[in-house]
Design a protein that fits this description.
This protein is of the alpha/beta class. The chain has one domain: TIM Barrel (Alpha-Beta Barrel). Helices cover 39% and strands 12% of the residues. The protein has 15 helices and 13 strands. The strands form three sheets. An eight-stranded parallel beta barrel has the order 3-4-6-9-10-11-12-13, surrounded by six helices. Helix 7 links the parallel strand 10 and strand 11. The protein starts with 14 loop residues before the first strand and ends with a helix. GO terms for molecular function: FMN binding; oxidoreductase activity. This is NADH:flavin oxidoreductase/NADH oxidase N-terminal domain-containing protein.
């Protein structure tokens, strides 16, 4: 752990959002999927323990991982679902354990669309009935094209879930529109082949997202902050491009979005892995070049997640004024105390390393590292310490077994209910 001589540690500066909400510092825990819920998709005390641990680090805001809005549409076994108030008491406890320590807890709301393991859901829908690439077809089925009534219902569900989160004491909402999930599927010309009001042109492809945002805003009001996680690009031929993303961002800014988190990639191309030039590697932040393009177009606060390795790199990035909040995710899965060190001007004791199984076909899948880090979150939630040196192959095997059992258990739970 090296102490860095900083004139001013910019990470400690508060940030005021356009609606007046103040985030206490410039560090945010970006969303990572925890899969800690019951197989009937209820949040548990494991969530409370995990987030209590993170909030104790002094981080300014924490974004939950993958809260789904429909029990019929899960991304993984163990996803939390908020579609009514049946879990209101534990949701309040979850929010309070973070906010009473001075941090903010934002709920990331999501719908997986077709990005759901085979057998988990009775039926998967997407913008169009487009299958995954050959390498992923063994894991995911070809979806049905969503009909108009289903799209409208999903939009309403986003709004309902957001309102419940607000009532339970969460600090804000983040719409997940990145990483290949349903909203990203609608945005992408590779996955959205529709020719009706929901596709055919960039404006129509983003209508679903804009309607989701409008419904959430209608439900939570203007004083409650709403963020979006958006890909700078999908890094897939024929997919969502930087030019597409810039147009979406301008539309969201005009509509009153409070914060934009920039990420990139999908489970097929690799999540939060931008093609890196040597200059990007030196600057640490994967998406800082795109953030600079966004900053030239809009003045909405920006959060960049991916690639940060040091407190010095984070400060240099913030000093450039290209963005406002540093998002860290994987680092906090192996060092939940990392923000304490970073805010004090020193580096974490741990560094994020590539996770490999040694099997090329597995290592090439963007989902591989997600599974490894999910294992570490599970350890923290159980009161254990992470295992930064855990075998990638062993973690993959455990994840496959756990996912298989989780799919079976979820199916059995549905039958009983």
């Amino acid at each position: 752990m090296t102490h860095l001589q900083l004139k001013t540690n910019l990470l400690n500066q508060p940030l005021t959002l356009p609606n007046g909400v103040v985030i206490p510092n410039r560090l945010a825990k970006a969303a990572t999927s925890e899969t800690l819920a019951t197989y009937s998709n209820n949040p548990t005390d494991k969530h409370v323990r995990l987030y209590q641990r993170w909030a104790a680090s002094g981080i300014g805001m924490i974004i939950t991982g993958n809260i789904m809005i429909d029990r019929r549409a899960l991304g993984e076994p163990g996803n939390v679902v908020i579609e009514d108030e049946r879990d209101f008491a534990i949701l309040q406890k979850w929010a309070k354990t973070v906010t009473q320590q001075g941090s903010q807890l934002w709920a990331q709301l999501n719908h997986p669309g077709k990005q759901s393991p085979k057998g988990l859901n009775v039926r998967n829908i997407s913008a169009s009935a487009v299958p995954f690439g050959v390498e992923m077809q063994s894991l995911f089925t070809t979806p049905d094209e969503a009909i108009h009534a289903e799209i409208i219902e999903i939009i309403q569900r986003f709004g309902r879930s957001a309102l419940i989160c607000k009532k339970a004491g969460f600090s804000g909402i983040e719409i997940h529109a990145a990483h290949g999930y349903l909203i990203n599927q609608f945005l992408s010309p590779l996955h959205n082949l529709r020719t009706d009001e929901w596709g055919g042109t960039p404006e129509k492809r983003r209508k679903f997202l804009m309607d989701v945002y409008a419904e959430i805003r209608k439900q939570v009001g203007t004083d409650f902050p709403i963020a979006i996680k958006l890909n700078s690009a999908d890094f897939q031929k024929g997919g969502f491009t930087e030019e597409d993303s810039l147009e979406v961002i301008k539309a969201l800014a005009a509509a009153g979005i409070d914060l934009i988190e920039i990420s990139g990639g999908t489970y097929e191309s690799g999540v939060a892995k931008a093609p890196q030039k040597s200059s990007t590697i030196a600057r640490e932040a994967f998406f800082i070049d795109f953030a600079e393009k966004v900053r030239a177009q809009v003045k909405i606060p920006l959060m960049v997640t991916g690639g940060f390795r040091s407190v010095d790199g984070m400060n240099q990035a913030l000093e450039s004024n290209a963005f406002d909040i540093v998002g860290i995710a994987r680092l906090m899965a192996i060092d939940p105390d990392a923000p304490k060190y970073l805010l004090a001007g020193t580096n974490s004791k741990q560094t994020v390393q590539p996770i490999k199984t040694g099997i090329k076909k597995i290592d090439h899948l963007g989902i591989m590292e997600v599974l490894w880090y999910t294992q570490q979150l599970n350890r923290i939630a159980q009161g254990k310490t992470p295992k930064p040196k855990e075998s990638g192959l062993w973690a993959f095997i455990k994840s496959v077994v756990r996912s298989g059992w989780g799919t079976y258990a979820t199916q059995r739970t549905r039958i009983k209910s």
